[in-house]
Write a structure and sequence with these properties.
Number of domains: 1
Distance between the termini: 25 Å
Number of helices: 3
Shape: globular
CATH class: Mainly Beta
Order of helices and strands: EEEHEEEHEEEEEEHEE
Number of strands: 14
CATH topology: Jelly Rolls
Radius of gyration: 16 Å
Low-confidence stretches: 1-8, 197-206
Strand order of the largest sheet: 1-2-3-12-9-14-7-6
CATH architecture: Sandwich
Largest sheet: 8 strands, antiparallel
Length: 206
C-alpha cells in the first residue's frame, strides 16, 4: 500500500501520476449528518435487486441498488440526495448529473473488481463516492505493471474520489467480508454523457 499523504484539509492523496489521481477525504460530512442521511435513505429510496450475466450465468447482484438523475430532478428524489450532491459539487467544482446508490446489507454484499464504462462518462470528470453507515474496504488495483494495490477503509461521511484516467488504468472493488458487518450505503456521483433516447445503455456498477 502506498504511503498516504496528509494535507491540512485532511485529504489523503493515494495516487497521482500518469495513471490518474485518487484522493480520500475522511470526515467530509460530520458523523451526525452522515447517520441522519443513512437513516433517511434507508427508508426513502426505492431499492431494487438486479440479475446480471456473469461468467455465462444469470446471477443476482449481491447488493441492492438505486439511481437518480440530478439534472432533471423528479419528485421522487429524496431531499438528502440533493443536499449531498450540492456538497460534493461545491467541494470538487464538478457538474455531477447522476448518482448511483448501493445498499450493502451485510458482509456478503459486495462489488466485484471493475471499472466504470467510459462510454457513459463525460471525459475529464471525476467519480466521487460518498459513504454512509458501516465501514467497508475499497480495493483499487492497477491493471498493468508497475503493480499497485490500494486498500482504503471507507468511513461514514468520507469522500473517495477517482479521476477519469483511473477508470482506464485501475479496477476498484468492495470485497466480501466475514463476521458481523452493519449496513452501508454508498452514493456514487458521476458526470454522464447525454445519449440519444434510442441508444441502449451499457450499464455499469453503481
Amino acid at each position: 500500500m502506498p504511503q498516504l499523504t496528509l494535507f491540512d484539509s485532511g485529504e489523503r492523496l493515494l495516487a497521482d501520476d500518469q495513471r490518474g489521481r485518487i484522493t480520500y477525504l475522511p470526515g467530509f460530512v460530520d458523523r451526525a449528518t452522515a447517520d441522519a442521511w443513512f437513516t433517511e435513505l434507508r427508508t426513502a429510496v426505492e431499492w431494487r435487486s438486479e440479475r446480471r450475466m456473469m461468467y455465462e450465468r444469470d446471477v443476482e447482484v449481491p447488493r441492492l441498488m438505486a439511481s437518480y438523475r440530478l439534472d432533471t430532478v423528479s419528485a421522487s428524489t429524496p431531499q438528502v440526495i440533493l443536499e449531498a450532491a450540492t456538497r460534493v459539487r461545491t467541494q470538487l467544482q464538478e457538474p455531477f448529473n447522476s448518482v448511483g446508490l448501493n445498499l450493502y446489507r451485510d458482509g456478503r454484499d459486495s462489488v466485484a473488481p471493475h471499472n466504470d464504462h467510459l462510454n457513459e462518462l463525460l471525459e475529464g470528470h471525476s467519480i466521487a463516492l460518498l459513504s454512509l453507515g458501516a465501514i467497508r474496504r475499497m480495493t483499487v488495483r492497477a491493471k498493468a505493471k508497475p503493480p499497485r494495490v490500494i486498500h482504503v477503509d471507507l468511513e461514514a461521511g468520507s469522500l473517495f474520489v477517482m479521476d477519469y484516467l483511473t477508470q482506464i488504468h485501475y479496477t476498484h472493488a468492495i470485497p466480501k467480508v466475514s463476521g458481523v458487518v452493519g449496513e452501508r450505503i454508498s452514493l456514487a456521483f458521476r458526470v454522464k454523457r447525454r445519449r440519444d433516447a434510442s441508444e441502449p445503455s451499457a450499464g455499469f456498477y453503481k
